[in-house]
Amino acid sequence: MKTLNNKIAKLATIVTSVVMLANCSKAPKEVTSDSMVSPTTSTQPAASVAASQEKVYKQIERLARPAINEGLIITNDFLNAFNSIAPTLDLSTAAATVVAEAAGVLTAVHNYGRNAGLPAPEVADVAAGFLPDVMRIDTSKNINVGQWAYNGDFTIVNGTSAGAMLTGGRKIEDDVMDITLSYLIAGNPACGPGQACAIKEGTSYAGGTTCSNAGQGTNIANPGHKCLFSQTSRNGSASFPFLASPN
Questions:
Q1: Lower CB density within 10 Å: C or N end of the chain?
Q2: Residue 209: exposed, middle, or buried by beta-carbon count in 10 A (0-12, 13-18, 19+)?
């Protein structure tokens, strides 16, 4: 057995040596500009290559009214599916299961308000005003300085009390969550500077601070956002680009 193993080892060595010598004996290949072309380079016309390399984007999220799709759709797969389609498909048959879940959450919110003795709006009325999930803005309306825009125009659609929707747009300082909850639970979105909302969730843009003591990024005790660009008082006039200066 030992002799056989030694013969196999010697044979393997001989074969390896022969292969190496054969490769060394080959004439070196001349390197030309053609031989340097990457094997992955396409031989298609330039226009075809450019078209094939064009980026394809995939929609993964969309947001219109705050707390609508991310607040009413609680199944993650449903939310991902809803975020991937255009608003024109919100009321389509394909989205019916997702809309049904949103209606179920709205029903729970409605019942919570009614059980608390509040005139929560009917679920069908809310759905008519909020779906499809887009920001409806009536540009003919004038929203004054010092007035919140999100509830600045509470439009009644179709000439009835059904399907009321917020069409005033949205200012940076608008407390959209308090407005939304006040409408969904208490049926009354009327509130703003100097008028408390019926339902409050406890946070706001100002955070209870003024332009002089807002401490965002510098003072944990006063974490409210800074006032807007050139603004001297909360909800007052501001100038372009409107957003507060960086910390």
A1: N
A2: buried
pLDDT tens track for 107-139 = 999 999 999 999 998 898 888 888 889 888 888
| Whole-number Å distance between alpha carbons of 244 and 188 | 31
Where are the alpha helices (H) located in the chain, listed in sequence order?
2-25, 46-52, 69-72, 76-83, 96-115, 123-130, 176-186
The count of other CB atoms within 10 Å of the CB of residue 224 is: 20
Backbone phi, psi, residue 178, to 5°: -65, -40
Strand partners, 165: 155
- Report the alpha-carbon distance of residue 158 to residue 188 in Å, rounded: 19
Residue 141 near residue 160, CB atoms below 8 Å? no
The answer to whether residues 172 and 229 touch, using CB atoms and an 8 Å cutoff, is no
Alpha-carbon distances, residue 165 vs 41, 113, 128, 174, 225 (angstroms): 56, 19, 8, 16, 28
* Contact partners, residue 209, CB within 8 Å, separation at least 6: 215, 222, 223, 224
> At residue 147, what is the residue type?
Q
Rounded CA-CA distance 112/91 in Å is 26
Residue pLDDT, tens place only, 28-62: 444 343 433 444 555 666 666 666 678 889 999 99
Largest CA distance in the chain: 104
User: pTM for the whole thing?
Assistant: 0.72
Cα–Cα distance for residue pair 244/205, rounded to 1 Å: 12
